[in-house]
Amino acid sequence: MGEKTKIMIIICDGMGDRPIAELGNRTPLEAAETPRMDMLALRGETCIVDIIAPGVRPGSDTAHLALCGYDPYEYYTGRGPFEALGVGMDVRPGDVALRLNFSTVEERDGALVVLDRRAGRITEGTDELAAAVDDMEIEGARLYVKESTAHRAALVIRGVGLGHEVRDVDPHEVGVPIWKAEGVGEANEKTAKIINEFVKRSYEIFKEHPVNATRVEDGERPANVLLPRGVGLAPHIPPFGERYGLKGAAAVEVGLIRGIAKYLELDVIELPPSVTGGLDSDFDALFAAALSVFDGYDFLLINAKGPDVAGHDDDPVAKVEAIERIDVALEPVVEKVATGVHLALLADHSTPCVVGDHSGDPVPCLFYGPGVRTDDTATFGERTCAYGGAGRIRGQDALPILLQLSERAEKLGA
């Protein structure tokens, strides 16, 4: 075997898309000016990736588990625990955790109807709102809340006799009433009752909160309720270093992915405040922070969130701009991998603007580094990569491909 090389995976969150008429029936990636991604594709090997399996819509959590080499069907127990750990909460065995959205609702005929699931993309005051509902007691359980990035937050429920097979309260669309949490069986029913009471209290507290009074005065939508989703139990996941023999780190923008990195025992790189996880995020600072510590690691995971945000907002122009800014920020990465690093660059899922959510469409991927067998792909895009030399693979295949390219794979058999 040759000399072992380092491995880097760059995930452009939600970058995959579908053709859009206003972009000349091109996807945002196809419409974007991406000379660095194109160069890597030209000198590398490309493919398209079904992150979980063909037609399966991945969450960001299950997608990242797969891309780190873990079967999400075996290790995924719900999104909430990852979100909670990622924002620095104490998550213990037996805890039930949920992801929360600061949202805007209004009362209609006794129901709370969703006007905006993200409260106008709120970015300020969420710490004060979270503090107002933190450390609550309901049905003998303690409830802890902490804000995350932008409109996101997390909830940890600690008590006895709790279940986690409970329906979301967040209906995942606007113009409809919020759902009631429901569960079958004593433990799940108890958790559902706690969640429903928590949502009710959050609305009662938030609708009179000074943060929302100021938002209304400024013509912004109030964050007047917390909508839970992604309930789960704290999972047991084998550490990445033990599983693959690699010392790894992660530079990621949002709490959910930080939580996954922490569960995998990857070192989480501290990022400057300008790296926001939104469309205004400083991608130059993101990559600079990651590269500043890369020499001390065998494996580096980087996630840039911007394209996903634009996809959820049905804003193809903003998605093109986010992809182009990521491409510019890749310049020092291109210089670094030229010294002998094996790189994969891909999306964790498609977030088509016309859908406004994740889809099961496969995503483009490139592999670059010493000894990679180049193909005829000259530009990086959904349709060009479909003809690449690596064919069509699953998300779980990406890391094994990188391991064998970097001379780290064990031989199967004699």
What does this structure look like?
By secondary structure, this protein is α/β, with parallel strands linked by helices. It has 2 domains: 6-76 and 237-405, Alkaline Phosphatase, subunit A (3-Layer(aba) Sandwich), CATH 3.40.720.10; 83-233, no CATH class. Helices cover 33% and strands 21% of the residues. It is built from 16 helices and 14 strands. The protein has helices spanning 28-31, 35-42, 60-67, 72-75, 80-86, 126-133, 186-206, 210-217, 240-244, 255-263, 283-293, 306-312, 316-329, 331-337, 382-385, 395-405, and strands at residues 6-12, 45-50, 96-108, 111-116, 136-138, 141-147, 152-158, 225-233, 248-252, 267-268, 299-304, 341-346, 363-368, 392-394. The protein has an 8-stranded mixed sheet, sandwiched between helices. Strands 3, 4, 5, 6, 7 and 8 form a 6-stranded antiparallel sheet that branches. α10 (255-263) links the parallel β9 and β10 (267-268).
In short:
The protein has 414 residues and is an alpha/beta fold.
